[in-house]
Design a protein that fits this description.
The structure holds two protein chains of two kinds. Chain A is α/β, with parallel strands linked by helices. Chain A contains 18 helices and 24 strands. Chain A has a domain of 381 residues: TIM Barrel (Alpha-Beta Barrel). Chain B is globular. The chains are: A alpha/beta, B alpha/beta.
C-alpha cells in the first residue's frame, strides 16, 4: 500500500464543482480516497494552483505518420535534443519529438492523458508500440474510418447495424478507442489523386457522400454506446470559404446523448475561413460559434496556430498535397489500403503572412466567442498548429486582453480588418482554463467514469500542481507569470506517484492504454459474415487473422466495455 | 501439425499467408512460400551453442560466460559499434538502442549499406508512398527501377503488383502495364511490357529527362539519353501521365549506382511532378525482413532512422561520419557487437578487415561470414521461426512474426537485456 497526502492545495476541479478551495487530497494506491493514515508521504502544495492531470483530446504523438515526420526531419531532431539524465532517456526533436521527448515534456506541463488523433487500423500495432514508449501518459487512439470500404458499403446500403458491427469489430481488433473521420470520403478519392469539395459530393465508385458517412457513423457510434462521440476532421480543411462546409456539417448533427456531445469537431480554426482565395480570406469565427452556441450536441477544439516552424501531419492526404503545392517544401504521403490516407509537410507560421495572422486570430476568436468553455477545448492539433509546448502561451492569450493587444500590434496589418479579435474583451479565468485543458476533455472523451479529469473520491490520482498562486497573480496583467507557471509544474502526480518535479522526470513511467470493446450480437458480427471475410482476404494485403493487435502490445491495457445495441 | 497464415521473416515483403507443416522442433514443409521462404524455414541450421575463439580454434562456452565477456568488451571500449538489427524483431532493436544510449555507442542498421541513400533523399524531399494494398487494388502502371523482384522479392509481383488481382484491377495481367528499367535485361525485364535498358550510371539523366517530358519540355531532350531513345522516353512519360494510378519501386540499382541519393531524390521529384497530372507513388524495395522496423524503432527512440552516435550523450546523426562502414574504415571503432546480420559478407573489405582486428561479438542464429571475423558468436532464436515479435513490412505495415517451433534457444532480446544488466544500467521494465 502506498499513501500520499497533498496538503494546502488550491484546487479547481470543475467536474466536482470546486473552484479555488484550499484543501488536502488523500491518495492511496493510485486513487483518491477520503483520508490516509499518518504514515502517508506528504507534499505541501503551498496554496499553489492544483488541477486534475491535463488531458489532450487531440494530439499527434505516436504512430506511422508521426514517426515519418521524425524520420524525414533530421533538422528538427537536432533542434530539441537532451542528454540521458537520471531516469530520463535521451530525447531529440522540437516539433516532432521522440516518444520520450513527448512524454517528458507533456509530463512537465502536467499532462497525464493523451488521445492520439489518428490511427489507421492496418498500422495500429505501430501506434501501440509507440504508446508503450510514451510511458508517462495514459493513451487512447482515435481510429480512422473516413475511407473504410466496408463502412462505405454499409452506409450505401443504409444499414446502420452493419456499420456499427464493422466499427465495433475493428475497434476491438486493433484496440482503438473512438471513431475518427478525417475528410470523410475525401481520403478514398485521394486514392485516385482527387478530393471532395462539399459534404454532398459523391465518393468515386462508392456512391456515398460525406454527409451520409458522417450521419451514419454518428448513429453507429451511439448504437455501440461508445464512450466518446464521433471525432470529426471536417471536409475542406484549410480552404478559403470552407466555413460553409463546417456549418453544413454541424447542421447534420442530432442531439443523441445526454452525457456528452454527439459530435466532436476537431481543430475548427482550420475550418472557419471566409473569402474565396488566399488574398481575401477572412474569419468566420462568429458564424461558427453562433452555430456551436446553439448546439449543445457539438464540442470543438480550437486548433490554434502559433507563430513558429512546425510540421503538419494528417490523414487528410489531398489537403497536404495542396499545401505542398503552396509551400514547395518536402512532402510525404502515405495512403492506407481500404482505410484512409495521410500526408506530412513542414510549415512555418509567420507574422509576416496575413493568412497566418488571420488563422492565429481565428483560433482565439473561436475560444473567446464560444459561451461555454466546455464546448471549445484548448488544442493546437499538435504539432499541426504548433507543438504542444506552446499551450501555456495560448492560455496566457486567452486570459489577457493586454497580451493579445501586444501581440496584435506586431501582426500583419490586414489582420484587424479580417477578424474581430481586437474587439473581444473577454478574459478567461482559471476555472475556464481548467475546463478547457482537462475537465472538458474528460467529459468529451467519456472518461470521467474511468476516474479522469477530476479529483473526486475514487478518481485516478492524476494531479498537476503549478507554481502559480491564483490569489496573488493577476493574469490579465501578469500574463508572463501565467505562461511560465503552466510551462512547468512543481509536481505532476500520475496514478498516485510523483513522476515529474520542477520539470525533471523522477520515475519510470507505467502508463495504461484505454480501448473500447462494444458487445455485438452474434448474428451481426462481421467476423461471422462470409462476404466480409471474403472481401477482406481478397483486397487487404494482410490476412484477416494477422490483422488484430494482440494484447501483448498493451502491457497495461484497460478495456472499456459497452453494452452496445441495448 | 499445420500452421496457417505464417509470416515469412526473410525479405521486406513479409508475406503472411504461408502454411507450414511442423514436426516437433522443425518445419518439414512450406506451402505458398517462394524458394527464399522455403530455405528460410527448412535450411535453418543453427550454431548449437556459444563459441569463443582461441588462438588456434573455437571453444564452446556457456551463455552466461558469453554474455559476461560481451559486456566486458563493451564496457572497456572507447568507441563501440552496435550494428545489424534488420533480421530480428522490434524488442531486440529497442534493447539495442538502450544499450547504445547507456554506453555512448554508435548504433547503425543495415540501411547503411542498402537504402541509406533513399533515406537521405527522403530527408531532403519527402516520400510520396502508400501501403502495398493501394498498389494491388488500383495501380495500372508499375515501374521497377534498378531492382529484380523475381530474384530478390519473388512474391512481390504476385502478391502486390503485376499478377495480383486488385479491386479496381480485376484482370491484373491485362490491365497493368509493367515497365522495367535496368542496366541489363534480368528476369524481371523479361516480363515487362516496356523494358528500358539504361547505360550504367545513367539513371539521374534519364529521370531528369522524364521530369522534363512530364513538364512538357520535349524540345530540350536530346536524341538519346544514357542509351535510351527519345521516342522511348516520350512513350514512357506518356504511359505515366495517362496512368490512373502509377507506382515506382526501386532497388539498389538506383541507390548504389553513380549519383546515389541524388538518383533517389530525382525519382521522388518525378513522382511529385506526376502527382500534378495523376496519382503516383514511389517505394524502396527493402531487403531484410525487418530492416524497416529497425528504421522505425531507431526513429521513435532517437529521432533518426540509422547511423546514430551517442558518444556526446545526445543522439547525433551524420551519415558518412556516424555510419558503420565509415567508423570501421577510419579504424575508429575498438569493439563491435553485431546482431542479426552479416556485415562480413556485405561490407567493403577494409571495413570487414577492421572487424576482424577488434573484439567483435556476433549474436545471430546462424553461422555466417561474420562468424569468421568474430571473437565470440552467441546463437539465439530466429525471429519468425522460434521467436515472436514485430516486423515492419517494406511499406511500413507492422506485422507480428509468429513463433512456429521451439528449439530451446534464448531470444536475442533476452540475451541483450542480460548484457544491459551487466552493464549496470537501468531501463524501462
Amino acid at each position: 500500500m502506498t499513501e500520499l497526502l497533498v496538503k494546502n492545495a488550491c484546487v479547481i476541479d470543475p467536474i466536482q464543482g470546486i473552484n479555488g478551495e484550499i484543501m488536502d487530497i488523500a491518495i492511496r494506491d493510485g486513487r483518491i480516497v477520503e483520508s490516509v493514515s499518518d504514515r502517508a508521504e506528504v507534499i505541501d502544495a503551498q496554496r499553489c494552483l492544483t488541477l486534475p492531470g491535463g488531458i489532450d483530446s487531440h494530439t499527434h504523438v505516436c504512430g506511422t505518420k508521426v514517426n515519418f515526420g521524425r524520420y524525414m526531419s533530421p533538422e528538427d531532431m537536432r533542434a530539441g535534443r537532451t542528454q540521458r539524465r537520471g531516469r530520463m532517456h535521451v530525447t531529440s526533436g522540437y516539433y516532432v519529438p521522440t516518444t520520450f521527448g513527448n512524454s517528458y515534456r507533456y509530463s512537465a506541463m502536467g499532462y497525464t492523458t493523451l488521445l492520439e488523433g489518428a490511427m489507421a487500423p492496418l498500422e495500429a500495432r505501430h501506434t501501440h508500440e509507440e504508446f508503450t514508449a510514451t510511458p508517462h501518459q495514459d493513451m487512447l487512439a482515435n481510429t480512422l474510418f473516413d475511407g473504410n470500404w466496408a463502412v462505405m458499403d454499409a452506409v450505401r446500403e443504409k444499414n446502420i447495424k452493419k456499420t456499427a458491427a464493422i466499427v465495433g469489430w475493428t475497434l476491438n481488433a486493433i484496440k482503438g478507442y473512438a471513431i475518427k473521420l478525417t475528410n470523410p470520403g475525401g481520403t478514398e478519392a485521394w486514392g485516385w489523386g482527387e478530393d471532395l469539395t462539399s459534404i454532398h459530393d459523391q465518393v468515386p465508385h462508392f456512391e456515398v457522400t460525406p454527409a451520409e458517412i458522417i450521419t451514419a457513423m454518428i448513429q453507429a457510434n451511439e448504437l455501440l454506446k461508445l464512450p466518446h462521440s464521433v471525432h470529426l476532421h471536417c471536409n475542406n480543411l484549410g480552404k478559403p470559404g470552407n466555413y460553409q462546409t463546417t456549418l453544413d456539417t454541424f447542421e447534420l448533427v442530432p442531439d443523441l446523448n445526454p452525457d456528452r456531445q454527439t459530435l466532436y469537431a476537431t481543430h475548427v480554426q482550420f475550418h472557419a475561413y471566409g473569402g474565396r482565395t488566399w488574398r481575401n480570406i477572412c474569419s468566420k469565427a462568429e458564424e461558427i460559434t453562433r452555430s456551436v452556441n446553439s448546439k449543445p450536441q457539438i464540442v470543438m477544439d480550437m486548433g490554434q496556430i502559433m507563430f513558429c516552424r512546425t510540421m503538419t501531419m494528417t490523414a487528410d492526404g489531398p489537403m497536404e498535397f495542396n499545401l505542398h503545392c503552396l509551400h514547395h517544401n518536402k512532402w510525404s504521403n502515405h495512403d492506407v489500403e481500404l482505410e484512409t490516407g495521410s500526408g506530412i509537410i513542414p510549415v512555418t507560421y509567420s507574422k509576416k503572412s496575413a493568412v497566418n495572422c488571420i488563422m492565429w486570430a481565428i483560433g482565439l476568436e473561436l475560444a473567446l466567442l464560444t459561451k461555454s468553455p466546455w464546448q471549445c477545448l484548448l488544442e493546437t492539433d499538435n504539432p499541426n498548429g504548433a507543438p504542444f509546448v506552446k499551450y501555456p502561451e495560448v492560455i496566457g492569450l486567452l486570459m489577457s486582453k493586454r497580451y493579445r493587444d501586444e501581440e496584435c500590434a506586431t501582426l500583419h496589418p490586414d489582420t484587424e480588418g479580417n477578424t474581430s479579435l481586437c474587439a473581444l474583451e473577454r478574459e478567461m479565468d482559471w476555472h475556464d482554463i481548467a475546463v478547457m485543458t482537462r475537465a472538458g476533455q474528460a467529459k468529451a472523451l467519456g472518461i470521467i467514469n474511468q476516474g479522469k479529469g477530476h479529483l473526486g473520491t475514487g478518481a485516478e490520482a492524476d494531479i498537476a500542481i503549478y507554481p502559480i498562486r491564483t490569489d496573488s497573480v493577476d493574469p490579465a496583467r501578469e500574463y508572463r507569470k501565467v505562461v511560465e507557471g503552466f510551462q512547468k509544474t512543481r509536481y505532476t502526480i500520475k496514478r498516485g506517484r510523483v513522476v515529474s518535479q520542477d520539470g525533471e522526470i523522477i520515475v519510470d513511467g507505467a502508463n495504461a492504454t484505454f480501448w473500447a470493446n462494444a458487445k455485438i450480437p452474434e448474428d451481426i458480427r462481421v467476423d461471422n459474415d462470409p462476404e466480409f471475410i471474403r472481401r477482406f482476404q481478397e483486397f487487404y494485403t494482410v490476412r484477416m487473422s494477422n490483422y488484430p493487435v494482440q494484447e501483448i502490445y498493451l502491457p497495461r491495457g484497460r478495456r472499456v466495455d459497452t453494452e452496445a445495441f441495448t | 501439425m499445420l500452421v496457417n497464415d505464417v509470416v515469412c521473416p526473410f525479405c521486406g515483403c513479409l508475406c503472411d499467408d504461408l502454411e507450414l507443416e511442423v514436426e516437433a522442433d522443425r518445419v518439414v514443409r512450406v506451402l505458398n512460400g517462394c524458394s527464399l521462404a522455403e530455405a528460410t524455414f527448412m535450411n535453418d541450421t543453427r550454431l548449437p551453442a556459444p563459441i569463443r575463439r582461441t588462438s588456434t580454434a573455437w571453444e564452446k562456452i556457456s551463455y552466461d560466460e558469453a554474455i559476461k565477456e560481451t559486456a566486458d568488451i563493451l564496457k572497456d571500449a572507447d568507441r563501440p559499434l552496435l550494428y545489424g538489427w534488420s533480421s530480428t524483431h522490434g524488442d531486440t532493436q529497442s534493447v539495442g538502442v538502450h544499450i547504445a544510449e547507456l554506453i555512448g555507442a554508435v548504433i547503425d542498421n543495415t540501411s547503411t549499406v542498402c537504402h541509406g541513400p533513399s533515406i537521405l533523399a527522403i530527408q531532403e524531399v519527402g516520400h510520396p508512398g502508400c501501403t502495398l494494398g493501394q498498389v494491388k487494388n488500383r495501380a495500372d502502371v508499375i515501374i521497377y527501377w534498378g531492382c529484380n523482384p523475381i530474384e530478390a522479392h519473388p512474391r512481390h509481383m504476385s502478391r502486390y503488383t503485376t499478377f495480383a488481382t486488385g479491386f479496381f484491377v480485376p484482370d491484373a495481367q491485362r490491365e497493368r502495364t509493367i515497365i522495367v528499367v535496368d542496366t541489363r535485361r534480368n528476369d524481371s525485364g523479361g516480363i515487362a511490357d516496356e523494358f528500358v535498358q539504361i547505360e550504367p550510371g545513367g539513371d539521374y539523366a534519364v529521370l531528369s529527362a522524364l521530369r522534363a517530358l512530364v513538364r512538357g519540355k520535349e524540345s530540350v531532350i536530346p536524341k538519346k539519353v544514357a542509351g535510351i531513345s527519345k521516342e522511348q522516353l516520350i512513350r514512357i512519360a506518356g504511359i505515366c501521365k495517362n496512368a490512373k494510378f502509377g507506382a515506382i519501386f526501386f532497388g539498389l540499382g538506383l541507390t548504389m549506382s553513380r549519383g546515389k541519393y541524388k538518383n533517389v531524390r530525382n525519382a521522388i521529384e518525378l513522382t511529385d511532378e506526376l502527382n500534378r497530372h495523376t496519382k503516383f507513388v514511389i517505394s524502396p524495395m527493402r531487403g531484410h525482413g525487418n530492416v524497416y522496423g529497425s528504421n522505425e524503432v531507431f526513429t521513435w527512440m532517437t529521432g533518426y532512422p540509422f547511423a546514430v552516435d551517442f558518444a556526446r550523450g545526445i543522439a547525433f546523426y551524420n551519415p558518412g561520419e556516424t555510419t558503420a562502414v565509415d567508423i570501421l574504415r577510419r579504424g575508429e571503432c575498438d569493439a563491435a557487437l553485431i546482431v542479426a546480420s552479416d556485415p562480413g559478407a556485405n561490407f567493403p573489405r577494409v571495413a570487414a578487415a577492421h572487424l576482424a582486428k577488434i573484439p567483435t561479438v556476433l549474436i545471430d542464429p546462424h553461422v555466417n561470414a561474420t562468424t569468421s571475423l568474430s571473437r565470440i558468436h552467441i546463437p539465439c532464436t530466429a525471429a519468425g521461426i522460434d521467436a515472436a515479435g514485430t516486423a515492419y513490412r517494406m511499406d511500413g505495415v507492422p506485422i507480428r512474426l509468429k513463433k512456429v517451433i521451439e528449439r530451446g534457444y534464448p531470444d536475442d532480446a533476452e540475451i541483450l537485456k542480460k548484457i544491459y544488466d551487466c552493464l549496470n544500467g537501468w531501463m524501462i521494465p
